[in-house]
Specification:
It is built from seven helices and 14 strands. With 219 residues, the protein is α/β, with parallel strands linked by helices. It has two domains: 120 residues, Rossmann fold; 94 residues, Orthogonal Bundle (Arc Repressor Mutant, subunit A), CATH 1.10.10. The radius of gyration is 22 Å and the shape is elongated.
Length: 219
């Protein structure tokens, strides 16, 4: 069960947020001692809902200090509507930003989206001697990194998920199309060729084998 830490000085709103996240299946932790906001740095939660307008401090400055100590996901919750505040919050490291009064369903969707992104970012898989980071789109060998484009990573991830099996060209093009980018047969060939080149540079020249009239297989 994911834990949501709520940092909100309005007691009524704080209780509403607690009820909302608990009813959605999350555990709720509340930081009530806002006179000592540095306690936030020791919070053991999966996500923080952080109000910008806090007594005696500023949520944005608190966020900036928090980012020096942890990468825990943060959604800024505020009654301000200025784009400047949103820009500052995101530049200080906020993962999302929502204004009051907010739609409870929208807030829950944003919480879910941020947690999903975090889980993907934490996923690390290996292929031979390489570490694969899907979130960053990178392959690393401990010393050097090779950055894949979005399409190259989609192709590689599908081949990796089905390693040793033939993945058809249609299946690859469907995966790319599902990510809102149309790719025709020729474009697929170009992307596979570029992926092969990067894998060769990383010491895996024989990684992808073409099976005529069938597709590709990751060895």
């Amino acid at each position: 069960m994911n834990t949501i830490c709520i940092v909100e000085d309005d007691e009524v709103l704080r209780e509403e947020l607690c009820t909302l996240v608990r009813n959605a299946g999350y555990a709720a932790e509340v930081l009530t001692d806002l006179a000592h906001p540095e306690q936030l740095f020791q919070v053991q939660a999966d996500l923080i809902l952080l109000d910008i307008n806090l007594p005696g401090t500023n949520g944005e400055l608190l966020l900036r200090e928090l980012r020096r100590k942890t990468d825990i996901p943060v959604i800024m919750v505020t009654s301000r509507t200025s784009e400047v505040d949103e820009v500052l919050s995101m530049s200080y490291g906020a993962d999302d930003y929502i204004t009051k009064p907010y739609n409870p369903t929208i807030l829950l969707l944003r919480i879910s989206a941020v947690l999903k992104r975090t889980r993907r970012a934490e996923q690390r898989t290996a292929y031979r001697h390489l570490q694969v980071d899907p979130a960053k789109g990178s392959l690393t060998d401990g010393e050097q990194a090779w950055i894949l484009t979005k399409n190259e990573m989609i192709i590689f991830q599908l081949l990796l998920d089905r390693q040793g099996e033939i993945v058809t060209r249609d299946a690859l093009m469907t995966a790319l199309w599902d990510n809102e980018e149309f790719v025709n047969d020729n474009a697929l060939s170009v992307n596979v060729s570029r992926l092969r080149t990067k894998l060769a540079e990383a010491g895996c020249a024989d990684a992808i084998e073409t099976r005529k009239k069938q597709g590709y297989i990751l060895l």
